[in-house]
Design brief:
The chain is of the alpha/beta class. The protein has helices at residues 14-21, 31-47, 98-110, 125-134, 160-175, 205-217, 219-223, 227-234, 244-249, 287-298, 315-320, 322-329, 334-342, 344-350, 355-362, 366-372, 376-386, 390-397, 402-406, and strands at residues 3-10, 51-56, 71-74, 78-79, 94-95, 116-118, 144-150, 182-188, 255-263, 270-277.
Amino acid sequence: MARIIGGIAASHTPTIGFAFDRDKRSDPAWAPIFDAFAPVQDWLAARKPDVLLMVYNDHVTSFFFDHYSAFSLGVGERWAVADEGGGARDLPPVDGHPGLAAHIGQSLMADEFDMSFFQDKALDHGCFSPLSVMCPHEPAWPVKLVPLQMGVLQFPIPSARRCYRLGQALRRAIESYPEDLRVAIVATGGLSHQVHGERAGFNNPAWDARFLDLLEQDPEALADMTHAEYATLGGFEGSEVIMWLVMRGALAAQVTCLHRAYTLPSMTGIATAIFEPAQQAQRALPEAMLDRHRTHMARQLDGVGALPGTYPFTLERSVKAYRLNRFLHALVDPAVRRDFLADEDAAFERSSLSNEERDLVRRRDWIGLIRHGVIFFLLEKLGAVIGVSNLHIYAAMRGETLDAFQATRNARVLYSVASTSPNQRDEETS
């Protein structure tokens, strides 16, 4: 069974990455940052977590306002460093843990947190700024990473109370995962700062200290505060510290603070802290409770496995077939369509499809594509490109001729999602 071994709080200002990349350790202006992170490095080296679940917010780098979610869980296999305008930092990508991430996602949805899920997005300084100082990473990172991106920039945003409850739900999710994993929860952001408007440069070290006190001793008081109260005390962007309540909610009610440091070099109060469950609160959730939770998680799809010819598009299937689904989705671009129709093999090569994936597409093996993990709504896009109707695909998936399938319908019609496509066939041929 997975277990949470502790929680880390760490600010994520770009100055941290700047100081690390330029080796400012001996510079008096920057040294306090490295001093603050040294105990975090030591704790991670000693406790050796297998996975870090990192609660962070993107800074309009990989996420934009064309689709902005409150809670977005990274379920992919690997996480690269984002280019924020001046080139990506020279850090290796960090491996994800898709199995744990999928389990967490299913658990949180069962607990009525309406999650979104992402893959193939680079992570910006919200994640890699503290991570680069926390762990050695040459030639590779010693831990795997599950990122939880919080939409805290475009209001309305989740309340502090909702963040705290999300943390409590995360504990159930992680501890009900059957694999023996050591998981640390890392919360990033803040402390007090404001980076826009005439109030830019606002700080409140007294509030920062009080916040850290309450985070350890009385998180319920922090959960009751409004966004306006956080902004008044800690600056408008400083209200992102509600993310720290996700980490705190995932821990036991009583914790021991093993380390706490604070410095204010410029625009943001930079803090680090380490929490472990207090001695009397180190017990995992009871196994009977976890069994009930696993049953609760499985309830919505219970029985679907007995439906013949049915393949739910789960997070696990999405991760497994991501490359092929992405290839097919790209066919919505007219230029990509033209290139595909001109030379399929070259298109396969550009997208680095495996031999199995190329064969499935080349043979138009519709049911094979479904079984591999392709979602149907990308099959109909491929069909539209090559002039195959939806009805042809339905029949093929059932192993029937078009005539045989049409005989089961109330009307013999053909259609696709691209009625204006010059490739679309109207004749009812197999």
